[in-house]
Amino acid sequence: MAKKEKKKPDFSKPKQVVEQEVFVEETDEEAVEKPEYDRTKTYANLPLIVIAGRPNVGKSTLFNRFMHKRVAITDPTPGVTRDPVEGDAFILGKPVHLMDTGGYKLTRDIGTMEAVMDDLVVEKTLDKIKKADRILLLLEAGNITPEDEEFVQQLRPYWDKVIAAVNKTEGGRNEENAWNYFKFGFKELLFISAEHGDRIPELSEKLIAGLDFSRVTEYDDEKRPIRVAILGKPNTGKSTLSNRLTHTEASIVSDYAGTTRDVVEGSFTYNDRNFTILDTAGIRRKAKVTENVEYYSVNRAIKTLDECDIVFLMIDAQEGLAEQDKKICDLAYKQGRGIIFCLNKWDTQEKGRLPIKKAEERIHIMFGQMEYAPIIALSALEGDGIKMLLDNALELYSQLTKKVTTSVLNTALKDWVHKYPPPASRTAHFKMRYMVQTSVNPVVFTIFATRPEVVPETYLSFLKNRIREDLGFDKIPVQLEMKASRQKWEDREQE
Prior knowledge:
- By secondary structure, this protein is α/β, with parallel strands linked by helices.
- Helix content is about 30%, strand content about 20%.
- A six-stranded mixed β-sheet has the order 3-4-2-5-6-7, with helices on both faces. It has a six-stranded mixed β-sheet with strand order 10-11-9-12-13-14, sandwiched between helices.
- Helix 13 (about 405-420) packs across helix 14 (about 455-470).
- The longest helix is centred in the first third of the chain and has 19 residues, at about 115-130.
- The chain is elongated.
């Protein structure tokens, strides 16, 4: 039997498998489509999308889904959201400014505090709708209510900006009732589930289509907004100050304690510097926190310490300091945040320098380790003291972001050790080697020593004070760490 002759490969052509593996569009950098926006960057002049509807239809749940985190408080209780809650989100790769609004209520108990609050919520919602580039009207699968009827009429002047979606239709649930909303004249209805994610991609496409992104600009990292959290007990004037600074009425102001539930975000510019204000719920003792909604509000307020640069601690000049103020300060101090004590409602106090001096002394007694923190007497209602408050905020941020070179630090350390040598004994003998700055905002320094575990707290306090006074950190908390090292700091390369 004749041997079957092997077919010689034809090298004049590339192998088919090679042809399949080489794609110009994947290897050519110019041909690869790159994302237009970077999720790690911050952008300004974003299109505004407002989520609106009657209470308890799932607006906050949908807002949180687009934000990819729990920002707005969700609870089965109708009317949980009062102030507009906002934030920047990326929808299909496009940056937008998203806003969750309070529910539109028609029936109110006339003459009650809740009725007053409901009127304020509706007023805020309608105001934000006027400014929106796109309105996401969220409806609920079920019977159409009078509130739906009236709210749709309120939206008629902005009909070309409205996208309508019926929520809570997961798995086709209640779709037969959802079709009834077509009677309002919607060209299209999307049946979605904010909780389960049904048809969210289709909704995202509708929200983004036709929006104008031509004005969107990237923030310079060096000029990113300074984030300020306004913290304090209920009814100390936090929302009044927030509205004063932003020149808006974004936060609802009322004599009724506990008005603010979510963190309300606003922005303004002072001396060519952008600020972001985080107006928070009043923080009370745990024993007085009874509702689930208030529990989440307080926790959200405390969580803003992770997101801010500076804390404005609001103190009612009429009521003075409370134990809660001390706890807030302790949390802020541990995270290295700049703190300004704001003695609000000072317009109700006796005029002159002596009352302010007495108030400062009381604060220094209660916060013995925070004498560096500025104390500003102001009136958020009248606007007194605002300039001094913001000037101090700029100074604090400058110190929080200040970086000192290693050579300057070690020259200073050598001088401090020479003028005030460490206490020496047979059991507690150590040597300071060198110092570096390991972090800004929060400001952290690390000193390497031969036996860091025996360095007394008094000497660490001395070094912290020297850092503040000699190196320009006199208004902020400074963290100092000790680590073991055998290397002499004189031999360390000077940076």
